[in-house]
Amino acid sequence: MKTILFVFLTLPMFFLFSSCDTPISKYETKNEDEKEVIDLLTRYTEAINKGDAEQIIPLFHENGVYVTGRTKDSLSREKMAEWNSENWLMDGQRKLYNPEITINGNEAKVIAKVMYGNTSYTQVYTLVKENNEWLIMKRE
Asked: Burial level of 1, CB count in 10 A (0-12/13-18/19+)?
């Protein structure tokens, strides 16, 4: 009887805590590269939420592309520079959760949950490390 009661009391708590999203700011990095990747994505999200192309563009590699969510168009850095604040802010304030980081040498892939308002979706970031600095190669 005690075992059944224990299971019925602890099982819901397990599901409650395991279903919580981890904000990118609370992600526990495993090494310096992960710390730098998280820092880059934090700066990226802050710049997007301000609609500030001057802060967004330097975070992308010179050959980097931004794949738009609505039209799936690939924007080069030059095209990103042409966007105004409204283009960056059209989906509202974004937050990143539950990052999964895979680093292989000077390349990294980050899969994260993006939330804005009541909408969420999975975002994939491909990054490269060049001149000792992580940059976004592709955001899709």
From this structure: exposed
Within a domain: 85: yes
The CATH number for 113's domain is 3.10.450.50
Distance CA 64, CA 59 (A): 9
Say what the pLDDT of residue 88 is.
Answer: 87
The model carries a pTM of 0.83
The number of distinct structural domains making up the chain is: 1
Is 21 within a domain? no
Cα separation of 68 and 100, whole Å? 21
Positive/negative CA dihedral, 33, 123, 118, 69: positive
Instruction: Provide the residue range defining the domain that includes 46.
Output: 32-139
Edge-to-edge strand ranges of the sheet holding 60-67:
74-75, 60-67, 133-139, 119-130, 107-116, 95-104
If phi over 0 gives left and psi between -120 and 50 gives alpha, with beta otherwise, what is residue 10? Answer: alpha
What confidence tens digit (pLDDT) does each residue in 44-53 have? Answer: 999 999 999 9
